[in-house]
């Protein structure tokens, strides 16, 4: 039997999610209750006191048997008093038991405990914590002031560490002798879990102890800010001393991470060094970074947390605030670009940071100038590189086949992707951290290609459409499957949510569009009228109308409530890839394989404008971002800068160029504007300018957003607004 308690005390929600996903693999799972939180204070007082009494009687009887005390010890009066003091806090009863059982004289400990709990203004837990802590001074022959300082240094560090450390690691971190720490901790077994194994981590038994020390006005108060600053200085000291290039002494700079034994890593990177590398977020780290940035990233790669480096760069920047000098700010920007570009490579082969990582940096890169000499001596000839960073921020690797569809969550923090490898993955849009793969309770998911994905307007749900003829709804936080919608008789191509998130629309190769209830999975409407597969569907922003584009070269408008066909828009000479509404629901935009983008009046079905270029077909989709922006993409992608959006004639615009992933199984995060041309031989040619006939009105703007090109490599604009 496996019992899991206190899921609510997980530091991060993703930890709960991982545990829940693992539970699905068990044959039988039982839950004590189906409530999100169990409110103990709402239970009847007699019920609470009964359970506490049972606990105390059991624990005290075990002490009586172990110590061969009289059969009537400790007596009903003492038990009743302990129950009264403990109610309604089980943690109080548990701490009381550990205090009484600690040491050679449980009887004296019990009397001391009962005597200390006289009426005062202190809370129940404050009283018991003060009793425990006072023993550290009373039992010590040293100067109480010295003991208090040592207490605040050691215990303050223990309660504020992001992850617990062992006595050995704590001694190294604080530059103390392990025996001194052991001596101080000895009276604290009732509030701390102190293993006999000096290499095992010390843990707080309950978070209320941490809160007490931070908030108490007693002499045991721990200054949180001051202690954190001391921890940072200790971390910097350890990293400055221990970090170095090729810290594990690998024979080759191409050694894969999977070939490096974890024992070897732990031997060369002690627990305190690993901790220091993971939690250095102070502006005091600038001097350290200028010398050890690559060493630090190598260490993070070796311990498998290189993706955390991006978040740490952001915290360093936000921690410095407005007082950050320009030199540090520029360094952090360049370092972040370096990490985003090389994190995946470093996770596979950490020492490549010193090889391909630095030699392919732009000429003006600060990191290049600082660390180019760290490259292996065998690298004599350096490649030609650009002067500045390209627009490509990061490539997200993880799919094993073509990426067909991507979407951003409404808050822009998460990317969802669907692939021909039959999987859906969630990615952190800022860090590109390891994706979560959405699977059902059978650990499978879709059985065929995932053709389309989308977030609900509130970001809580993901919808996916697949060639297995199903639509699935997923919980975006837990990754669990919520619903499977069945009804199409052929491949499902596009899917989308209604603006209120209550309805899902899907299009299929069976030539139909279906509307579904997102909560019950029931089919609401079946829209028939197309004579070919439906490639694109979308709701109008007011939720009243559905637009669809098909292989039959037409766009159709439908009443979302009655399923009646409202309009048929004709004018394209090839299949329709994409359709979308303007934010005011008055205009429909369509993209086709005839290399044209058309704008239509949604009420009259009249064609308003045609946008053409000299290249190939277009795909586009529209995101719920401020302003009336439209995203255009296809086998060719064109970003139109703001200053050119009002042009009404042909024009040639210069662009900064990205680098392109050669893999169709990746997602590339963009920083700026870009153009590329797909040649007849399927190769890509990057051009430094593009010509496009752009017939525009105020309602047409180019969106920084989520694009899908037919080559299935997905690209995304991130930081354009600030440039």
UniProtKB/TrEMBL annotation:
Domain EML-like second beta-propeller: 452-622
Gene3D superfamilies (alphabetical): YVTN repeat-like/Quinoprotein amine dehydrogenase
GO terms assigned for molecular function: hydrolase activity
Assigned keywords, A-Z: Hydrolase, Repeat, WD repeat
InterPro entries in the record: Beta-prop_EML-like_2nd (IPR055442), PQQ_b-propeller_rpt (IPR018391), WD40/YVTN_repeat-like_dom_sf (IPR015943), WD40_PAC1 (IPR020472), WD40_repeat_CS (IPR019775), WD40_repeat_dom_sf (IPR036322), WD40_rpt (IPR001680)
WD repeats: 396-437, 443-484, 485-526, 527-568, 569-610
Pfam families given in the database record: Beta-prop_EML_2, WD40
Keyword field contains Protein transport: no
Stated name of the protein: Platelet-activating factor acetylhydrolase isoform 1B alpha subunit, putative
């Amino acid at each position: 039997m496996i019992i899991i308690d206190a899921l609510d005390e997980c530091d991060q929600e993703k930890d709960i999610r991982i545990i829940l996903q693992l539970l699905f693999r068990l044959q039988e799972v039982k839950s004590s209750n189906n409530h999100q939180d169990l409110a103990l204070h709402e239970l009847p007082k007699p019920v609470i006191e009964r359970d506490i009494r049972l606990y105390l009687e059991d624990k005290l009887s075990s002490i009586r048997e172990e110590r061969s005390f009289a059969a009537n010890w400790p007596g009903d009066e003492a038990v009743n008093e302990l129950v009264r003091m403990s109610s309604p806090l089980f943690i109080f009863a548990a701490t009381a038991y550990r205090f009484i059982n600690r040491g050679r004289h449980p009887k004296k400990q019990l009397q001391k405990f009962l005597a200390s709990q006289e009426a005062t203004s202190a809370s129940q837990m404050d009283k018991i914590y003060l009793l425990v802590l006072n023993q550290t001074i009373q039992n010590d022959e040293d100067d109480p002031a010295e003991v208090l300082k040592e207490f605040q240094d050691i215990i303050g560090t223990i309660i504020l560490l992001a992850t617990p450390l062992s006595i050995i690691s704590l001694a190294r971190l604080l530059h103390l002798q392990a025996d001194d720490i052991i001596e101080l901790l000895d009276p604290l077994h009732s509030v701390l879990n102190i293993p006999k194994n000096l290499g095992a981590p010390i843990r707080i038994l309950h978070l209320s102890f941490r809160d007490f020390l931070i908030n108490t006005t007693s002499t045991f108060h721990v200054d949180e800010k001051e202690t954190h600053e001391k921890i940072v200085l200790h971390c910097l000291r350890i990293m400055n001393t221990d970090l170095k290039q090729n810290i594990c002494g690998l024979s080759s700079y191409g050694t894969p991470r999977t070939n490096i034994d974890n024992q070897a890593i732990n031997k060369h990177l002690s627990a305190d060094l690993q901790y220091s590398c993971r939690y250095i977020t102070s502006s005091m780290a600038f001097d350290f970074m200028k010398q050890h940035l690559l060493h630090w990233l190598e260490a993070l790669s070796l311990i498998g947390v290189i993706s955390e480096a991006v978040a740490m760069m952001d915290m360093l920047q936000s921690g410095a605030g407005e007082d950050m000098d320009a030199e540090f700010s520029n360094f952090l920007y360049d370092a972040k670009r370096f990490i985003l570009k090389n994190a995946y490579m470093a996770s596979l082969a950490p020492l490549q940071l010193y090889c391909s990582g630095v030699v392919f940096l732009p000429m003006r890169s600060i990191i290049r100038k600082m660390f180019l000499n760290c490259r292996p001596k065998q690298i004599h000839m350096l490649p030609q590189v650009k002067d500045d960073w390209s627009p490509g921020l990061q490539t997200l690797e993880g799919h094993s086949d073509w990426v067909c569809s991507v979407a951003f969550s409404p808050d822009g923090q998460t990317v969802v992707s669907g692939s021909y490898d039959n999987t859906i993955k969630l990615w952190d849009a800022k860090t590109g951290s390891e994706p979560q793969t959405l699977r059902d309770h059978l650990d499978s998911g879709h059985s065929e290609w995932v053709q389309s994905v989308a977030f609900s307007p509130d970001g809580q749900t993901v919808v996916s459409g697949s060639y297995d003829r199903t639509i699935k709804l997923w919980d975006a936080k837990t990754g669990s499957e919520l619903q499977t919608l069945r009804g199409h008789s052929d491949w499902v191509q596009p899917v989308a949510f209604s603006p209120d998130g209550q309805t899902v629309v899907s299009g299929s190769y069976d030539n139909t569009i279906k509307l579904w209830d997102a909560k019950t999975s029931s089919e609401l409407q079946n829209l028939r009228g197309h004579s070919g597969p439906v490639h694109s569907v979308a709701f109008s922003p007011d939720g009243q109308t559905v637009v669809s584009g098909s292989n039959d070269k037409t766009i159709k408008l439908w009443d979302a409530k009655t399923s009646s066909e409202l309009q048929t828009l004709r004018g394209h000479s090839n299949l329709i890839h994409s359709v979308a509404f303007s934010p005011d629901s008055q205009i429909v935009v369509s993209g086709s394989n005839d290399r044209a983008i058309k704008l239509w009046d949604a009420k009259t079905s009249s064609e308003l404008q045609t946008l053409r270029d000299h290249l190939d077909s277009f795909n586009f989709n529209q995101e719920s971002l401020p302003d009336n922006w439209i995203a255009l993409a296809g086998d060719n992608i064109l970003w139109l800068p703001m200053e050119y959006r009002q042009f009404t004639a042909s024009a040639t615009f210069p662009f900064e160029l990205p680098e392109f992933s050669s893999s169709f199984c990746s997602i590339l995060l963009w920083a700026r504007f870009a153009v590329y041309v797909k040649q007849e031989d399927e190769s890509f040619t990057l051009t430094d300018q593009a010509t496009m006939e752009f017939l525009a009105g105020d309602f047409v703007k180019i969106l920084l957003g989520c694009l899908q090109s037919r080559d299935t490599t997905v690209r995304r604009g991130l930081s354009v607004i600030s440039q």
